[in-house]
Amino acid sequence: MKIIGILICLLLCSGCWDMKEINQLAIVNLGAADKDPETGRITAYYQVINPSALTNKQSGAAKAAVYTFKFEDFSLGRFTRQTTTIMPRSLFMPHMQALILSERYAKQGITDMINFVELSPDRRTNVIFLIAGSPIETIINSFSPLERMPGRYIRSLINLSGQGFETGYEPIRIKDLAKGMYRKKPMVIPIVSYTSSEPAKDTNRLEDIDIRKKTFLFVGGAVFRHGRMVGRLNFDEKQRYFLLNKNLTNYIETLTVNGDYVDVEASHIRVRRKFNASGLTYRIRATLRIVNNQQTTPVTRGNIRDIEDKFNRQFEAESQAFVRMAANKDWDLLGIQDRGIRDWKHVKVTFKVESDMSAIGNTTGPHTFERGN
Amino acid sequence: MGIGERTVGEIKQQLGKSPDFVCQSAPLRDDDRVHCIYLASIVICEQIDELILKPILEAYAAGRNEGFSKPAAPEALSSLVPIANKTIAAGTAAAVKKLLDGQCVLVAEHAPGFLSCDVAKGDYRSITEPKTESSIRGPREGFVEDIEVNMALIRKRLKSPNLIFESFVIGSETATNVCMAYMGNIANEGIVNEFRKRLDAIQTDSVLESAYIEEWIQDKTLSPFPQLISTERPDGIVAKLLEGHVAVLIDGTPMALAGPITFFQLFSSPEDYYQRADIATLLRWLRMFAFVLSIFVPSLYIAIVSYHQELLPTPLLISIAAQREEVPFPAVVEALIMFITFEILREAGLRMPRIAGQAISVVGALVVGQAAVEAGFVSASMVIVVSLTAISNYISPTYSFGIAQRIVQFVFMLMAGVMGLFGLMCGVFMLFIHLVSIRSFGAHYMAPLAPLMLSDLKDTLVRVPRKLMTRLPQETKAKKNAR
């Protein structure tokens, strides 16, 4: 009986050893890392949530919703231990929204980081991955407006931009990177930048109405080949990359029709790729909707056909320009090599675009008062 | 000294010279007398005077008695007494029993045996609405403490010659009347025999409430779950009888027992059958959901807050973390403090004089709710968890099932507190093992899910319209299938 009693007590105690109360945790909302190419030393930043500042009731409490902890060491595995030297709570990573790496770290290769994240059972591999377009210390030490946690701010931006994607999100999670690392096709990861050279270090920044002065900004994408950053794409190139690789199904294109601007939203974009003797053929179908029409003439059936033709031609032209840019930079952005074609640069890529206008807005004829007078 | 006087002396001796023992000796003629004995506290004295003594004395005075020339005998006396419920018997012990049943015993001076006449007081409360099982739609009558009234309430609803009552007297001291009821053409013989056997086997000095009987005849003693339905609604008992169950009525209590039962019957209420099938089904689901809430909400809260914070969405995690910033106790201790305090308040609310109830409610609400949160002893989320759980506990139609829920809930809380979700899962498995191991008079407690009885599901997980309920439940192994 005594032995059974002791065993039960031991069983219960072994359970309690694992206990970590919620208020003993340093909940990391945003992580960042930089690696010195000369020394190889890694600087890790943990942006930890201050829960009491995030509740409305405790007005007397500290206003800062997050605090950034900075550590430096030569190996990634040593940081958890190092945090105990300064952090009064245990590091809790599962709620990390995003991981930002400096550009110089990315250029040295991020395989070590992917391995580290994938190895740890309590780290989530659906954390999104970003590259810093500004000094990483500026980004990680800045408060954000509207969303009081910068991690959540960045995540919300990414979620919004992911609405046009077929899967509902941009394929930029660490697990997407791990999967794409083995392909010849480079991956494109968003670059997050900061609009000011000075970080918004204190909460007084939240009193400033001009958001653009100091805020996060997405500027194009970083091209990764086999886990190493090899270059940059601008916003339009990044969009074209995702369109031609069947990830993006919705975007807005500006056309010039009869000398005036017409903005159309292309949705339900279906991309079919076919390799044949003459090369690679893309068949693209899209549904169009006019979102802005500056033409002075009413929209007629002929005009709709003009818009559709213009869209088809422009899409083709921009895509061809994208293919040429990729070949010049030696980036197989269409993933032709993954189909077993080594001489991918000489594969002729043709685009056949078809579009249908489905909606032209509430009015067919524009208001022309100013021009008429 | 005649036989009668000796018998009276012996009876008086056996009753311990009780102060309410009355013996009136009435002279008949010459030296012949009749002794009229009774316990004044439990009989109607006027009836003894008017219906027993007066006719006898008048008959003897007028010389109309058939045995006028012979000494008075019980048979002769019986013909003079205009009371329907009367018996002639012999023996001191039998006489004592009759006296204790509220009967008047007439002992003739020179003849053996005695005549007993029923003049018992019927001082019972009137039939009122059941307090523990009130209903919106449906009969308002509830059982009372008198077994005969209760039998009448059943008979009134079930005018069938197949309704059988079997009587038992249980308790060496209390000699309580217990009555087993079943439908002869529906109830399974085996189940009826098992009830009979278990009731016969009860060896106890007293039966004061149905719980005494329930504990004696239930299958598994070490289980928090009720294995017999206890109800004070006659309509509920009649419904059970019609499905082939056996009911047990106990004198002195308004609670009747019925069995065998299954776990899922604890979620159904007689009212389910008095309203539309769809509404009844939704309400049944609500009760099942409340059961799940009451046993899992506190334990899940503890497990997640103490061990598995990664399961929470980030905004909720931050909200809970902010609330728990100043709380000095681990979640499991906090939960135990709150639940024990709540149980104390609930128990105090039940026991205390009604006039003080309001004061306790105010103190309870302020102390357990507002003040505890403001003082930082407990978090607001814990108060929500406790309130939700407490309300969910009360939704059970069977009170004893609500208590079982509370016990399971405490066990789960402790297991979640020491081992997190792993502990909770262990608890769930143990609960399932326990539930499938229970039998109620041979019926599987988890039927119709384990073992699966598809046709019984129509009145378990859902309540199908009455037109579709053409068959009796298989679990009661009724003699007939169709309703």
Automatic annotation (TrEMBL), chain A:
Residues in Spore germination protein N-terminal domain copies: 18-193
Pfam families listed in its UniProt record: Spore_GerAC, Spore_GerAC_N
InterPro entries: GerAC_N (IPR057336), Spore_GerAC-like (IPR008844), Spore_GerAC-like_C (IPR046953)
Keywords associated with the record: Germination, Lipoprotein, Membrane, Palmitate, Signal
Membrane topology recorded in Swiss-Prot or TrEMBL: Lipid-anchor
Localisation per UniProt entry: Membrane
Protein name: Ger(X)C family spore germination protein
